[in-house]
Amino acid sequence: MAMDVQILEENVASRVESSAVGQVSTSEENSSSVSKSRHSTKLIRLVRIMDYRNKLVLAPMVRVGTLPFRLLAAQYGADITYGEEIIDHKIIKCERRVNDVLGTTDIVEKGTDNVVFRTCPEERNRVVFQMGTSDAMRALKAAEIVCKDVAAVDINMGCPKSFSISGCMGAALLSKPELIHDILTTLRRNLDVPVTCKIRLLKSPQDTVELARQIESTGVSALAVHGRKVPDRPRDPAKWNEIADVAAALSIPVIANGDVFEYEDFQRIRDATGASSVMVARGAIWNASIFSSEGKIPWEDVKREYVRKSILWDNDIKSTKHTLKEMIAHYSSLGLPEGLAVIKSDTYADLAKLYGEEEYYEYVLASRRKQMT
Fold first, then answer.
1. At a CB cut-off of 8 Å and minimum separation 6, what does 148 contact?
2. Strands 94-99, 152-157: parallel, antiparallel or unpaired by DSSP?
3. Residue ranges for the chain with pLDDT beneath 70
4. Closest CA to 161 of 231, 239, 241
5. Which cofactors does it use (predicted)?
6. Candidate list 147, 159, 168, 197, residue with the active-site label
7. Rounded to an integer, what is the distance from CA 93 to the centroid of its chain?
């Protein structure tokens, strides 16, 4: 996906005037200088833009949406891939490191080798960094660490999990429109990448539309809407008609999310909602080739390809095992031999043996050793 650059010319005289208020009262010369600054000072800002219309989108999924899975989804046809939600508190304790061995950019906890977020040039123009936050300046500080390596930054406003709600993040933001406005406008004014957010439905369609309009007024590039309310469970049908209300009310692209399990569902939800683009979560976990217009490939092949990518990009083994268990649980049972073997696996050597990828595993290890010498 090609990224375009938009040139924004902002008059910053008001900032100059504000910073000089304490000095102008004692000097006419200073006053004249401030007056000139007010009329002539300009800030030129280059802002990257991304097309959010007619796209197939991988949803943000905790412990699933790491680099290997994002690349897997893109391989099968995903246009935009969201990373898993990462809390701002965690990011601001990190530093950016270039990993020459893997060819990646890693966001790593300072003083450790713990990788919090990993990306690579291949996904530079489609990966969206999703953040959990409840504070505008903290969000900005975190976003500035990652923004040069991602296509966009998204704020999670839909997660109903207790860890998000208790920190006034995720779905807790839905009842705080002033805080939403503060966070989004702060990011919009200071970042050179698109800013978006993802919400859930509110108690009434009218409430959802009103919040969506307020979000649009902040200047975000797109809005993703999960067609369920906070108390709803995944088994509850997504309310496509309420997503349609939002899409009809906004001029920015709306990304519809909920109950997309087959490739044909992408067009079905588009037709039902009028949304610009479509986002899929569980359907992609169960078989990432859902994004392929040529139809799904066997899930056994998808699993093996995911294992290969996890080995290649040295993904966190716990994350890989979690994703594999999600795949297996949908089609089979974790109590059967494959599921038990994944649970017992401690290393990539174990997983490579389980999925018949020992030769590939040894090849990757040999290549890394060669690069390190």
1. none
2. unpaired
3. 1-45
4. 231
5. FMN
6. 159
7. 19
Helical (H) or strand (E) element with 46:
strand 42-49
**Torsion angle of the four alpha carbons 103, 105, 108, 111, in this order, in degrees rounded to the nearest 10:** 70
Q: Compute CA 258 distance to the chain's CA centroid, rounded to the nearest angstrom.
A: 16
pLDDT of residue 371: 87
User: Would you say 238 and 273 are in contact if contact means Cβ atoms under 8 Å apart?
Assistant: no
**Cβ neighbours of residue 199 under 8 Å, at least 6 residues apart?**
157, 158, 174, 208, 211, 212, 215, 223, 224, 225, 226
The first and second tokens of residue 359, run together, are 């030769």
> How far, in Å, CA of 373 to CA of 369, rounded?
6
Q: Which residue has the tokens 């919090």?
A: 116
CA distance 199 to 223: 8
Using alpha carbons only, give the angle 171, 177, 183 rounded to the nearest 5 degrees: 85
CA–CA distance, 340 with 181 (Å, rounded to integer): 47
Parallel, antiparallel, or unpaired for β 56-58 and 277-280? parallel
CB 115 within 8 A of CB 91: no
Q: Which residue has tokens 């489609």?
A: 126
CA distance 1 to 194: 14
Query: Are 311 and 368 a contacting pair, CB within 8 Å?
Result: no
Order of strands across the sheet that contains 104-109? 94-99, 104-109, 115-119
94 included as an active-site residue? no
Cβ-Cβ contacts under 8 Å for 2 (sequence gap 6 or more): 125
Q: Pairing state of beta strands 222-229 and 80-82? A: unpaired
Global pTM reads: 0.89
- Report DSSP state, residue 333: -
Angle at 303 between CA 297 and CA 305, to 5 degrees: 80
d(CA 223, CA 208): 12
The predicted pLDDT at position 160 comes to 84
Q: What is the secondary structure of 246-308 as a DSSP string?
A: HHHH-SS-EEEES---SHHHHHHHHHHH--SEEEESHHHHH-GGGG-TT-PPPHHHHHHHHHH
